[in-house]
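Example 3.2
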Amino acid sequence: MEFSSKFIENAVNEISNLPGIGKKSALRLVLFLLRQPESQSKNLANAISEMRLNVNFCKNCHNISDLDVCEICTNPRRDQSVICVVEDIRDVMAIEKTSSFNGLYHVLGGKISPIDGIGPDDLNIESLVEKVKNNPIKEVIFALSTTMEGDTTNFYIYRQISDYNIATSTIARGISVGDDLEYADEITLGRSITDRIPFEKSLKS
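Structure, written as tokens:
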């Protein structure tokens, strides 16, 4: 792709590094911004810069937050004794949209996948075990994607916390096998959380 401007080329190259955006899509976005008032581009640049500087990861659950501890963890109306384990920040957003869960979250930051070189030590599993060990937790809900990697991660965590006197459950299989939570509709996801089953039963199915 030939460019008559090095500035355009640089902008296209940077935007095309974003997931799901190729050079053609990046060029369309750059040309769109070029036609807009200068203030729009400046506002976009400032928003991205402020996001990188100010967004934190919650020290308790690893969710995104503007503070050291996120609003979910500090909300006194949330059930502090129930933890929903999710793979990604987007899963927290998906479950929150259903208004079907009132406990806390724990974001793993991925799932165990040896083929991708991701092991337990690469995820936020140890901090989850410490949370269960040192707090009055009654239930841990596994809400990972229904894939082989998700099931492997569920089972690994289950083994790590099985010595503690807590209930473990998994979301009901209203979510199709292989699906990610973020793509499930709110009603199906909400029912999967509400109709969760003991994790031990999922091992027999």
